[in-house]
Amino acid sequence: MRTCFPHHRLSLLCLFLSEIFSSIGDSLVQEVFGAVGDSVTFSLHVPVSGTIIYKDETVGLVFNNQSEINGETFVNRLHWHNQSGFFTLSDLRPDDSGLYTVESTKVQKGKQEYHLDVYERVSAPRVKKTFSSSEFCSLLCSVRNVRGLKLVWSEDHILLNQTISNSTSNTTLSLHLEINKTDKDRQRNFSCVASNPVSKETTTFNVTKVCSLNKGTQPNHITIPVVVSVILLVCVIVMFVYLKKRKNEASRRTEDSSATEGLNEEIQYSEINHIKPTQTNIREHADEEVCQLTTIYDRIRPERTSESSTQ
């Protein structure tokens, strides 16, 4: 026996099912992410009247196209736009995270829950070399730790290593990477990527700028010229010091020689011959002295004669 449903009953059943599915869709919680200092907009349309609730407290109320914001935390930050009918929260803070419920009570009735997560933006990661040998080069990527941070090493978008921050107790999140030194490494580019749900920063570099690459165990092609240059520089310095010392010694010798010649010009030396005296020599010298006596004459005056007589 074939049963037929009246047309109006079938329409009521379809309407009932659509309301059920619509209620299920509205009950799903939407994830919303925001960055500190930015703003988010809750997408449920409240054209005439409605509310927005945060942690079981009504923080925003709309009645007949007039809005009222409650709570010191949301004053001047939570806004209702009468043209679009949307609630917007600006100047986001980390403690704004949580569950928000927006409900429209007139005209376009509806209700939607939103779970807001507010994150700090990540900073650019820094890469440095921590160890290098003839075969390996070890690199360290570091970045300031924030909530939800993920740090990744990659090569040409191929994942090599990664770590996720579970807490913000540590001020820095770091991740190591070890690279084999081979010829093909010279053309390889590596990236360290720091990201969270609201931001992403990447530091990309060529491995030759961070690691000194060798061909197997052969000496580094950059090290040899550097060593040779240092040796030549040392030799030049030593030679310069030696020549300068020699020049100073020669100059001192020239000055000493000139001083000696000056003294020789001022001093005249005479030869002294000593002859032992004899009786003959004594007599000859006595005769010479007698012969060399000089006779002195004087005029006799009367005054002088009288003085002599008196005496």
Outline the structure in words:
With 311 residues, this protein is of the alpha+beta class. It has four helices and 16 strands. Strands 1-9-8-3-4-5 form a six-stranded mixed sheet, with no helix packed on it. The longest helix is centred in the C-terminal third of the chain and has 44 residues, at 223-266. It starts with 6 loop residues before the first helix and ends with a helix. Residues 1-5, 14-18, 20-25 and 214-220 have low confidence and may be disordered.
In short:
By secondary structure, the protein is α+β, with helices and mostly antiparallel strands. It has helices at 7-27, 223-266, 279-291, 302-310, and strands at residues 29-35, 40-42, 50-54, 57-63, 66-69, 78-80, 87-89, 98-104, 110-119, 126-132, 136-144, 150-155, 158-164, 172-180, 189-196, 199-206.
List keywords for this structure.
Ig-like_dom_sf, 311 residues, 16 strands, 33% strand, signal, alpha+beta, six-stranded mixed beta sheet
